[in-house]
Amino acid sequence: MPVVGRHNRHRASLLLAACALAVCGITARGDLGAAPAPPETETRALLVERLSLVSPAALEATVAAAQALRFNTLVVDARALGELYFNQGLEPRAAALASQAASFDPLAAVLAIAHARGLRVHARVSVTLVASPADLPAAPGHLINAHPERLMVPRPLARDLTLLDPGGQLFFDRLLRWTRAQPGDSGGLYASPVSDEAADAIVSLVADLAARYPVDGIHLDDVAYPTAEFDYSRAALEAFRAEVLGTLAPQARREREREIGADLTAWPEAIPDRWAAFRRDRLTALVSRIRRSIKMRRPGAIVSGAVATASAAAGTRHFQDWRAWSEKRLLDVVCPAPDTMDAGSFAEQIAEARKGAGDNPVWVSIGAFRVSASEAVGRIQTARQLGAQGIIIGPYGSLVSPPDGLDYLTRVARAAFAP
Hints:
By secondary structure, this protein is an alpha/beta fold. The protein is 46% helix and 13% strand. The protein has a single domain (3-416), classed as Glycosidases (TIM Barrel). The strands form two sheets. Strands 1, 2, 3, 4, 7, 8, 9, 10 and 11 form a nine-stranded mixed beta sheet that branches. The longest helix has 26 residues, at 272-297. Mean pLDDT is 88; it is low at 1-39.
């Protein structure tokens, strides 16, 4: 959809949301009828995606609605698709903010407004997903334009792309054509968690954010490989080969090199289990570095992470060893995102996530746009019954789109957040 169309739809959503606030009798003071606010015993977070952050009016309407509906936390996009929704960061400012004054800082504005109203703010950072192939960023400083060599490579392209200059146009064009032809969760461009340069860049970016903004937490999203078919980039393959050889004595090293050969793609094929463990360990190391960078600059900030709920999918498809992250206290809060429409399967996945998180808090992500309001309320109740300490509902922009405006969220809030 053209950018102008998306912005027009969002403006319409804001107008309808404002109307819904008035019609439902919900004011900026947070009143839902005459009932007192519920006790602050759980995190009730509203996910605020990037298109709700593109203007001061959008921010005001979003925060007012969140407070009125008895949410106590906002999880807001700070880095999405490799662009920043805060100023003077280490990557380009989001193109969607081009019509606003350069002084407009969405994250700073959300923090000021939300904190004044008593709401907590967690900055959401997309770690590996950096671009949609359908709408490529034009900024020269964007990762895909400045450093295509830091992108993940899928296995089907591995042998061909290892022969090309990873910083060249031919390399990027081949990767882009393949990506655009893929359905589902492979349809994006991803930064490698293996590449030292890519890892250093995201750690520095998060450290800068934590140092300059009084966020209550940082929420890590897309902290995973899209599938087990990634990352076969030259940098990752070279790092794997070097790690394997580094554990061997000189004679054994020469024998292993002769055995596998000079083709970098042969190394994962020769020792697949170790290749899987290598990628898993590199992602865990990246999460550890990100956590340290946050805690050094903002010790009280909560580090949360979106995780796959199915054990097999998390460990073998996405190499996301989040149970180890939880055990090692790399995450303060585990945020499972069930990928099912079925209520029974939802409960099973939450129970598994609650068990895997140990004594760490769990906030359950509910993609409310996928279910009815009554089903969303049922899922909130299920999450509570299974021991979750919080929920994250969103994305806000989708839930207030025409023609319903705030009606959906109002019904959910009245049923689930009533005192």
